[in-house]
TrEMBL record:
EC number: 1.2.1.88
UniProt entry keywords in alphabetical sequence: NAD, Oxidoreductase
Keyword Oxidoreductase listed: yes
Position of the signal peptide: none
A GO term, aspect molecular function: L-glutamate gamma-semialdehyde dehydrogenase activity
Pathway listed: Amino-acid degradation; L-proline degradation into L-glutamate; L-glutamate from L-proline: step 2/2
Keyword Acyltransferase on entry: no
Domain Aldehyde dehydrogenase: 56-517
Protein known as: L-glutamate gamma-semialdehyde dehydrogenase
Reactions this protein catalyses: L-glutamate 5-semialdehyde + NAD(+) + H2O = L-glutamate + NADH + 2 H(+)
InterPro entries cross-referenced by the UniProt entry: Ald_DH/histidinol_DH, Ald_DH_C, Ald_DH_CS_CYS, Ald_DH_N, Aldehyde_DH_dom, Proline_metab_enzyme, RocA
Superkingdom in the source lineage: Bacteria
Amino acid sequence: MSTMAKLEDFRNEPFTDFRQKSALLAMEEAIFRMKSEELGREIPLRIGGRDIFTDAKIRSINPGNLDETIGWVSKADRELAEQAMQAALDTFESWKKVTPRERAQYLLKAAALMTERKHEFSAMMVLEAGKNYAEADADTAEAIDFLNFYAREMIRLSEINETMPLTPVPGEHNRLTYIPLGVGVIIPPWNFPLAICVGMTSAAIVAGNTVLLKPASNTPVIAYKFATLMEEVGLPAGVLNFIPGSGAEVGDYLTTHPKTRFVSFTGSKEVGLRISKLAAETASGQIWIKRLVAEMGGKDGIVVDETADLDAAAQAIVASAFGYQGQKCSAGSRALIVESVHDEVVEKVVRFTKQLEIGLPEENKAVGPVIDEASFRKILDYIEIGKQEGQLLVGGRQAEGNGYYIEPTVFADVDGKARIMQEEIFGPVLAIGKAKDWREAIAMYNDTEFGLTGAFFSREEDRIGEALETMHCGNLYINRKCTGALVGAHPFGGFNLSGTDSKAGGYDYLLLFTQAKLTSRKL
């Protein structure tokens, strides 16, 4: 593989403007093509470059149309997980010797191909994950961004290897290099089934590691499309091994495996804490402390003071709470509003919420289904709890359709200690609390075990300055919604039980997949 010329500076992939008729038609055509050509296929495991079909299958279904099967995905067991581990271990010995620039080229080629086929990837997420056009398009754009960003970051780190400004010592030549860790287990979530899957996997690979990718059981087909794309650009067999399977069986087995060097996880607090506990135990034959990179849950909120642009604040609250049905770890599921403008903001939030149209994602409705029956039941249970803890203003019921549809739901007069104010629901449910002033609103915002994203709406610079210091979260936004982090611009990760603050899409993220080696030579 030839040496690359100097790359242009990183730029975020533009979002598609679906107000343009040509863009709308292109997406509709891609959805039709996915439905006619790709749905219902049997999908294999990929271990060491080999297809393996199993009798046990994961049935991926369209959450917006339960009669539609997206794919029948082969399911790994412990024996196949062990085969994948051995393939990854064998391949690591050669992959770690590939130069960083060569590894980066695979990512750049994949980014170029994904850009060409952007609507194809987005269309699959419309069908498998229940995303509308804009949400799916943003997911694909972020995946492209991760590939382009991490490729450039690996090149930058390799150049730092040559120029790291260590303190000079007479008579010595000292050098610090970042070398790969080994074999990692990648466990991405279903809610950003392409972007986060691509980001976690490509970061580990470009840093010189080999991986076992265990996709979310709700969205394995889009993950397979990514895995086959990496093969198409020539990634050597065994670098990326695709092994869908049960978290309790395959996930636990690999997390506790003595040869697992690191686990990269995005998902719920409960699963993340279980992985942390399992990974902390030293298995027989294990000669390292496993590294865990974890991005977990959130109970994110937006604080609004009386000086804010109230229309902008209400629009941000609704977008943050109900974008992708509230199924984002960054979703603004709480709003804390000072009492002097509380009623006015609540009225606007209710009005904007009632304007949201519910229906099939492939028809590009604003609000689609939640991901599966378990989520559907859990969210409806929380809505019943909310009816006891606050005043139901809008929504509160199952919505029509052959899928897991729930009305966007708003509760007001919710106490800061209420369950719907404290517990992550991961659905279209917003809890609104009233504060006597902006400092009390910030205190209410901080009263959580999480700390992922937040937003503060105000026109007062002194208040903004204090909010920047005192609102305790990994990603804090001023006068904008609390969702929608951009790779390179908004490195993403949270405090407290929101995870290890890994800062995905940031300039230090790849260091999590390397170890620093100092060499000193006497002259």
